Amino acid sequence: MKFRAVAEYFEKLEATSKRLEMFKILSELFQNTPEDDIDKLVYLIEERIRPAFEGVEIGMAEKMLEKAIAKATGTELSKVTALYKKKGDQGLAAEELAKKVTAKLVKPKELTLAETYEGFYKTAKISGSGAVDQKVGIIAGLLSRASPIEAKYIARFVIGRLRLGIGDPTIMDSLAQAKEGNRELRPELERAYNLCSDLGLVAKTYFTKGLAAIKKFSVTPGKPIRMALAERLPTAKEIIEKIGKCSVEAKYDGFRIQAHKIGDKVSLFSRNLENMTSMLPDVAESIKKYVRAKDAILEGEALVYNEDTGELMPFQITITRKRKYDIASKKVELPLKMFVFDLLYADGKDYTSEPYSERIRAIEKYVKTGEALEYANRIITDDPKVMQKFFDESVTAGLEGVMAKRLDAPYSAGARNFNWIKLKRSYRAELSDTVDVVIIGYIKGRGMRTKFGIGAVLGAVYNDKKDVFESICKIGTGFSEENWVKIRKLLDEIKVSHQPARVDSELKPDVWVEPKYVLEITADEITLSPMHTAGKTNKDDSGYALRFPRVKGFIREDKKPEDATTVKEIEKMFKQQKNVGSASSES
Ligand code: ATP
């Protein structure tokens, strides 16, 4: 497939702000894509080169791209920089310069999608001395063969600014539409995706081997499974009413870890499927030593632990283990303990469809405790009073609360449902849980905030059914002065000229941004407001809003925009609100 055809579709996608139209264009593009190219195209649309968990990054800064454009088009670097400054978009600068060149030259051989992708892949794989020049050389090679429209998208991709704004659900809908003429198969594709976190692989399997292969898809050690998530209920009584006898576990506040062991090789993935193996060598070592299966996948929460006192350290301390340098000394100073709470695979057996009670047994069979490995503390009960007591003890021990888990439920990869229910400590005049919102824009500072150029951010929750972000609050409280400056800088890097296609908001901020950053928010309550679109079905209805929202911490790097709180969850929290405060015996 010619890359030019892809670029032309990208241009059409960029021009639309309607999701339905986006879906139609994408379906048509997939229909015209040969099966050998489909995985590469899916990665590019996801704005990456390989699935996220492989961490393959192109590693080119703006200046390097400018050098590549200069080299490819025979333009002085200072002129490329000046043109970029004028246009405010590297892609447009590359496009314009390519126009001048193509007008003069004999036509070079047209780029294919495979060659372009290969170029990106090679660029990403180069490291060590001389890497900068080599990377610039490869991208310049691509640009020198690119037509103006291709140059625009190559340049944007290279510096991570493709910004097509297409989510994975829309990609899956469009793949199904392209092959079957309707979206009914999306759940099958989603299931496969949840088991491997690699949408390119799913697309390739679907296009080359068909639906039967998708239906047979199972877990593979080394490919992270998208993590199961928990619903919330405000009281132990309601949890027992909902799921009956269950496993009640301590809810640890550290890093969620999914560990994959293949022989002697251990890989550790975060909640966001980022590879954290090199940061947590103590956990990897213990898994190698204490897991009694050649190949296995297990899950747990890792946090800093004081062996002498048995004390669990707060998240603020655990997070300091997330670092690229001084890993060895921190490992001694702040040792980790991973509390194992699930087992998903062992020696050829896929446990994801087994009931939780079986998986608990498998943990005991395959995982021995020692050094950084421990079992999660749990009781099994059908008595709300017993659960409440366990909850109170956990909170006293400095934990966040408890997780109740249905004993007969399979592992719901990538889904949030009542198979797992969290019961968190709550305070008066606060929601029983925090809300994770995606920033969709900001309002320029007035009064005291004029100097920061930002006074509030507009937050949205995720409507996973429609694959859009719906506004829920304006947040102007909770940031330090330093963080206002930081957030403004980060947002300016992702600002867009018009409301993004996947954003639904009646409030118009001064600056729209690509939905990218997630903030953890606490608020007094959920109210109804005609100003916000969260959960709004009719234009004249009210949407959900947050009363007195305030930021907790800073951007949540472990969450993607699609991991933000969903409209469905807000709806449930709204209904539960009357019970706030009764979960915990403290107030
Ligand atoms: P979510 O991960 O559900 O989007 P969140 O990141 O805000 O939400 P919480 O809702 O507070 O986190 O709780 C869910 C997290 O609790 C899990 O992702 C996991 O990291 C952690 N956790 C701690 N203990 C357990 C346990 N025993 N079982 C499952 N998860 C646990």
How would you describe this protein?
The chain is an alpha+beta fold. Among the domains are: 229-423, DNA ligase/mRNA capping enzyme (D-amino Acid Aminotransferase, Chain A, domain 1); 435-576, OB fold (Dihydrolipoamide Acetyltransferase, E2P). 39% of the residues lie in helices and 21% in strands. The chain has 21 helices and 22 strands. Strands 13, 14, 15, 16, 17, 18, 19 and 22 form an eight-stranded mixed β-sheet that branches. Strands 3, 4, 5, 6, 7, 8 and 9 form a seven-stranded mixed β-sheet that branches. A hairpin with a 4-residue loop joins β5 (295-306) and β6 (311-312). α2 packs across α10 (168-180) and α4 crosses α8 (131-145). The longest helix is centred in the first third of the chain and has 15 residues, at 90-104. The termini are far apart. Adenosine-5'-triphosphate (ATP) binds next to β1 and β2.
